[in-house]
Amino acid sequence: MSQLDRSDVARLAGLARIDMTDEDLDRLSGQLAVIVDAVAKVAEVAGEDVPATSHPIPMSNVHREDEVRPSLAQDAALAAAPDAEDGRFRVPQILGEEA
Amino acid sequence: MTTTDWTRATAARMADALAAGEVTSVELTQAHLDRIGQIDGPVHAFLHIDAEGALATARAVDEDRAAGKELPRLAGVPIAVKDVLVTQGLPTTAGSRILEGWMPPYDATVTRKIREARMPILGKTNMDEFAMGSSTEHSGYGPTRNPWDLDRIPGGSGGGSAAALAAFEAPLAIGSDTGGSIRQPASVTGTVGVKPTYGGVSRFGAIALASSLDQLGPCGRTVMDTALLHEVMGGHDVNDATSLPEPVPGCVDAALVGARMDLTGVRIGVVKELSGVDGGFQDGVKQRFDESLERLRGMGAEVVEVSCPSFEYALAAYYVILPSEASSNLAKFDSVRFGLRVEKDTVEKTMLATRAEGFGDEVKRRIILGTYALSAGYYDAYYGSAQKVRTLVQRDFAAAFEQCDVLVSPTTPTTPFKIGERVDDPMAMYLNDIATIPANLAGIPGMSLPAGLAPEDGLPAGFQILAPAHEDARLYRIGAALEASLTADWGGPLTAQAPEVTA
Q1: B443 and A64: CB-CB below 8 Å?
Q2: Which CATH architecture has domain B6-310+393-497?
Q3: Does A82 sit within 8 Å of B341, measured CB to CB?
Q4: Rounded to whole angstroms, how far apart are CA atoms A34 and A15?
Q5: Domain encompassing residue A20
Q6: Which entry of B181, B187, B292, B335 is annotated as an active-site residue?
Q7: CB atoms within 10 A of CB B372
Q8: Which pLDDT tens digit goes with each residue over B34-89?
Q9: How many structural domains is chain A composed of?
Q10: Domain spans, chain B
Q11: Is the pLDDT confidence value at B146 over 60?
């Protein structure tokens, strides 16, 4: 029994900023429910006494010398932007009309 | 006809012939470009071909060689680069429509190393979108086809790189392996691929899928060629905080030792859970695996069985960890700084529309899965538990490597399946990687090399070797020994037996 239903997928898609049509939700919800059921078995062996591993080969305090190094020039950084103006990324309005 | 078909040669042979003045880099590069021109229509290994750039590099190498300058070993030997790696001056898409036509403003570290090694870059190879897949069917630009049978998948995500090798479009290629994306395509195309120890190759400029699992690696048609490329790619890089501060392992030397076919004193562990006892492994795949094991035993190796009980949970843990990390990594595709923008009246609507249009279904599935696994109330049950499974998998490996020097298994449960067969059944697709995923969870190195053709369908079956972290050289020793034994009987690399691709 999956805990993930169609309305959950619609909500998650909103959080992940992916527009979904009814057709998308129909197609993906069923598949996602099957996958969620299959991966839920991770909880079966995850005992209290088992520590979590986030990185396969742990390294800590990886620093480099605090020296200025060359970085991307502004025009190179902006070259592939869908829209730019005055040396900045340009985007549509942030807030909708109702705001 | 007495002219040599250079596309059939190994990279090592090409390097020697260049050094001896038998052939020029321009001739080699042109031969591969011609081959690509003839057959890449149906194979579709490449997303972008850079004839001009490759020939320019080749010409410069030829001039320097003629002038008596010292050159790196692989100078003038052409290479194909997976489209996951950013390449200045060549479009880079990671197989996604959201990055269609994107020109990166910098080179990945591995791209820079290839350029410094003076290797002509033939082009960028096809892949599942953002490396999510095991068949290349999830590419935003259409699937790559397996040169052994054009109706079948070449594996994934690095199907383009593997198919380019198997179709003699390139002697070497770059791959990336998050759960098997180098080894599984190698297995189903009869080629060789290595996932190095996590951190062994810099990932600076590799478009990230799951950062705690991703690793770039070399692909070739022989173990020695793969070793040569591994040494070009590897080494510490200050631009990648996960890069190991240690020298590149001696892959070439290890391959030379292995080719002497003496494995006296080497202990080889067969992973019980991945040896096909429980079914799920195709008969011919299992048969070729068992025969390969016999060959290793015949060369003096001791074969022991080891058990890794947590591997049963590895696939589930992987499909929690990967989507979680991917959902975060792919948040950068927001229509602001690069890539597609589907313009709407607000930023938020623009993002929603852009990501809906730019991402394919598999990417959407995994982003949503990851968003779910990381959400409040579910985090402990999914992501937290998966990280614990990761510890258990590492403990299984540690215990196994106390009993043996390397672990072995078939690379994939089956030979390549038909295009379209599993594309609507994500779980069936995910099961392709059952034997390759544990290595990524633990960060250890792994190789796939051809074990032969499955008798029932005449398609390639792969043999996987896994070694402890930092011990990549062991893969090359054992792999070269097995390869030497097999090719002595085959009369050459397995790829020589592939049917000619008809355009």
Answers
A1: no
A2: Alpha-Beta Complex (3.90)
A3: yes
A4: 21
A5: 6-44
A6: B181
A7: 27
A8: 999 999 999 999 999 999 999 999 999 999 999 999 999 999 999 999 999 999 99
A9: 1
A10: 6-310+393-497
A11: yes
